Amino acid sequence: MKKLKRSARLVDMTQYLLNRPHILIPLTTFADRYGAAKSSISEDLAIIKEVFEDEGGGDLLTFAGATGGVRFIPKMTNKQALMYAQNLCAQLEQRDRILPGGYLYMSDLLGEPSLMNEAGKIFATAFAEKEIDCVMTVETKGIPLAYATGAQLNLPVVLVRRDHQVTEGSAVSINYVSGSHKSIHTMSLSRRALKNKSKVLIVDDFMKAGGTIQGMVDLLAEFDAEVAGVGVLVESGAIETEERLLHDYVSIAKLTAVDFKSKQILVSPGNYFE
């Protein structure tokens, strides 16, 4: 790369860090990239660190020593997260989202990259201190959220299938009980998709009683894997506590009421803000 002015170097360095979250980058990488002394690079990083912290964009951690460097950890402040949640709640409360049976239409929101990226950053903040090897979800609606979260944590995404696909090779399949309808369903995971003893962050777009997520928890047990955390975009508040199969999770929004006759929907920020 040609030698850049300091202002241009700061912009390029910031973009470089944003594109490589959770990766330890040696100072020599930047020194060689810009043809600059390590002392100048350190000064630049101090400026970037200050901006990240002041604006709530994340943490820039510095590691000393011959093998040291910097690592960018994406984070979102509570104020920013609450603003996001309130905006999400407002969109979910639109009257035309109610479907027959009291269901809520969410596919357009799940297909909006900017919304999912921000949700992924909230989960990345919530589980920043956890040791995680991969992000897991069940097909299909949770996939955009899982990839957004994986991108913020720089982790691979593992997809659980509703039906076994021949292209997945040998797989582990289990039956699980829907927490809300008490019906039996099947889910499967390719044996090649997950290493034994992995630490897994489960994310899903919607949770009623938690039967699907509990199914993923049970499936992970077949791989001797550990649940590092559970993140839910929207949870149903209509389920009684004793009926809920899962209690340890983080939710961004809570659907508290849906009235099909009056077309009224009530959504509030989730337990992440409690």
Q: Which characteristics define this entry?
A:
two-stranded antiparallel sheet, 274 residues, 8 helices, alpha/beta, 12 strands, globular, 6-stranded mixed β-sheet
Q: What does this 3D model show about the protein?
A:
With 274 residues, the chain is of the alpha/beta class. The chain has eight helices and twelve strands. The chain has a six-stranded mixed β-sheet with strand order 6-5-9-10-11-12, sandwiched between helices. Strand 1 (58-63) and strand 2 form a beta hairpin. The longest helix has 18 residues, at 38-55. The mean pLDDT is 92.
Short note summarizing the structure:
This protein has 274 residues and is an alpha/beta fold.
Helical segment tally?
Answer: 8
Count of individual beta strands: 12
Major pleated sheet: 6 strands, mixed
Low-confidence stretches: none
Question: Which structural class should the secondary elements be placed in?
Answer: alpha/beta
How helical, in percent, are the residues?
A: 25-40%
Q: Mind sketching the topology for me?
A:
Elements: H1 6-18, H2 27-34, H3 38-55, E1 58-63, E2 69-74, H4 78-92, E3 98-99, E4 103-104, H5 107-110, H6 113-126, E5 134-138, H7 143-153, E6 157-160, E7 171-177, E8 184-190, E9 199-207, H8 211-221, E10 226-236, E11 250-259, E12 264-269
Parallel strand pairs: 5-6, 5-9, 9-10, 10-11
Antiparallel strand pairs: 1-2, 3-4, 7-8, 11-12
